[in-house]
Design brief:
globular, Rossmann fold, three-stranded mixed sheet
Length: 201
């Protein structure tokens, strides 16, 4: 069973719809005991980094998530959920993230003349083989909505990249931690295949 972590994240319904389509067994919960019993976790997210960390703290989920990930339970972060896995974000100076992985979330540079936030489809490059993108063709397009992007400290964790003026670390995979800056639940057949890969890990 997959537990989708409920902390009033904005893209919860679209994630549920995708999981329903795939026939996945899941529950949406903020109950630590239910999270402990789950086989896998999904941390969705739309909104501001600081507000999201406040919500996780208010729900008493920050240390629970850290503990479950440390125990080896698989977790998938989506969009803001991915950003929360890292140490800090320029969006919310002084706010500490979950720090599951080393790296920072940076604001897109305006010097390239591109619209910020990035809203729309972009193609992926795969710098390494990964479970999350098994069977996915390099150059496949996925759907992004974000004003801030990941710069991972360790390039070995980066499973997918894209270009939007800046070089974007679009997905990471390290041990039991998986994450996508884009929205697989809104990325048509490619996104559904990525979610299916996670379900079957």
């Amino acid at each position: 069973m997959i537990a989708v972590i409920d902390y009033d994240a904005g893209n919860m319904k679209s994630v549920e719809k995708a999981l329903d389509y795939l026939g996945a067994e899941y529950t949406v919960t903020s109950d630590p005991e239910v999270l402990k019993q789950a086989d896998k976790l999904i941390l969705p997210g739309v909104g501001a980094f600081g507000d999201a960390m406040d919500a996780l703290n208010q729900f008493g989920l920050t240390e629970v998530i850290k503990s479950l990930v440390a125990s080896g339970k698989p977790i998938l972060g989506i969009c803001l959920g991915m950003q929360l896995f890292f140490e800090e974000s320029e969006e919310s100076p002084g706010v500490k993230g979950l720090s599951l992985l080393p790296g920072k979330i940076l604001k897109f540079s305006s010097e390239y003349g591109l619209k910020i936030p990035q809203i729309g489809w972009n193609s992926l490059d795969f710098p390494k083989k990964s479970k999350l993108f098994e069977g996915i063709e390099e150059g496949s397009y996925v759907y992004f909505v974000h004003s801030y992007y990941l710069k991972a400290e360790n390039p070995e964790i980066v499973a997918a990249t894209c270009e939007y003026g800046n070089h974007v670390h679009a997905a990471v995979e390290w041990n039991n931690i998986y994450a996508c800056q884009f929205h697989p639940e809104k990325s048509s057949d490619v996104g559904l295949a990525i979610l299916k890969n996670y379900i079957e890990i």
